[in-house]
Amino acid sequence: MILNDFRSLLARQPALPAPMCGISDFPWRELCRRMGARVTYTQMVSAEALWRGDAKTLEILDLAPGETHVAMQLFGGEPEALAHACRVLQDHGALLIDLNMGCPARKITCSHAGSALLNDLPRVARIFRAMRQATRVPLTAKMRWDWADGLTPADALNDKQRAGAALAVARLAEAEGLDGVCLHARTREQGYSGVANWELIARLKEAVAIPVVGNGDIREPADALQMRAHSGCDGVMIGRALIGDPWLLGDILAALEAGHAAPRRAPDWPTRRALMLEHAGLMFERRGPRGLIQFRKHAAAYLRGLRGAKLLRTELMQAATLEELSALLDRELEPAADAA
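The structure assignment produced for this chain is given below.
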């Protein structure tokens, strides 16, 4: 059964790297695999664009020949387009297909996609049904708790009559045969600010029998253990905390396997430098000079917490070749006093 396949996936890999726009390309997935992830995600792509036959949309997936165990994420608001897109992604080797119901960006929500779907449950039901009928591989949905704020942590603990849209969406997902859901424990209104409310993940887990993956504010291995202990979720998903620190994914996987988190220190400069050069090399190999420009956002993140990073970060923004990048990184940097 597909359901059992998704459960066994989470049993083998209880920590998943999140699909992130502008981040989850082939080089990023390759680094995640080296940190211990067998299953990785693409960034989200438009179902409507695939429906129109836009070849450039497939390029966003950045799939490499022979690449396997890739989960692919779609966004969209039209059932027919999403069903067609599922068939396209299956033809391109998708291990799993995920529907984005959490993106808060206006350019996404204005077309009834992303977190806007939380406001239209009848549309969600039609979408789930159409995608399930078109999809042989595991099918999941990643969502936020609700469109707008309205539940405080105290509300979630004490007011069981109040329910976020995610509860209704998850029940629809279960009824329409989806294989799991992921909850980013914030609302669309919060964006990426404030605190993720893990109690909401616990409430979602109580509401459905399909697997629930928790997401939001996992910055350390201990956070992953605490989220699972608090909510009972079947797995965790880590997003922005991995940017500049992909080693965190391996540490979280090790902690979940061991059942405890060892003390963690940020990787030293030689370790960071080596991975930066490898990451930049992979991006250059895929996209040439444009890849180096796109690497700049990663470079800035890799330098977090290092003394002298501000000047180096500025210099790296001008590097146009791998040789220039390597020369700029050929210096000694130490942790800043507040990061030691």
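Interim note for the steering committee: Strands lie at 15-17, 40-41, 45-46, 70-75, 96-101, 139-144, 180-184, 212-215, 235-238. The domain at 2-258 is CATH 3.20.20.70 (TIM Barrel).
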